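so ive been stuck on this for like two days lol. basically i have the seq below and the ligand is zinc ion, smiles is in there too. i just want the complex predicted, nothing fancy, no docking runs or whatever. if the output looks off dont worry ill sanity check it later, just need somthing to start from for the group meeting slides
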Amino acid sequence: MSGESKHLDSVPSDGLQQTDAGALSAEVPAQSGASPPDGGASPAASGIPSSAASSPAAAVDWPALLTAAREVRLRAHAPYSRFAVGAAVLDEHGRVHAGCNVENAAYPQGWCAETSALAAMVSSGGRLVRAVVVVGEAAEPVTPCGGCRQKLREFAADDCPVVCADTVRQRARYTLGQLLPASFGPAHLGPQVDADGVQSAGAASARSGDDPR
Ligand SMILES: [Zn+2]
């Protein structure tokens, strides 16, 4: 039942892909990746405050994220594509939430690993994504699809780091702003009214503070 396919275990031995956000020099940049990147796309274009993602408290435990994404990938339900993907997100409380892709015999009803990870985060109360890891095996680094980039955008700032890895190493690193430039987000809708009737500036306000609630 695991959509796992052992032939996917062959790992390209070529070098890491370089991105504008900087090359990955090693499997786990525990030191260099401990702080959010500052060279990402400008948040001004989309109106997303980047203060939250740039918070000093936003240290990222990349090994934990990579491990979570790799482990959950093994539980992917991908009997049709045989393309197993795992994703992990770090929330504003420092918690890691993971999810895998879940395919369906009615193909369009399946969904992506990033979507599963976001659902897990929201279900447990998280409302801010500080870092993302996506794990898949392919010739090119497995990046979030367009739909998932938008889903991530709901909870992440432009400078949120997105690391693409395989089962052995990191392959590429981007910011969400690089993957989804000039995006549409919660701030475009203006102040929102929460379910309890409290008016706020929407999810964007959550990104500007340490605790949205
Ligand atoms: Zn997707």
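DSSP finds five helices and seven strands in the chain. The chain has one domain: 28-181+191-208.
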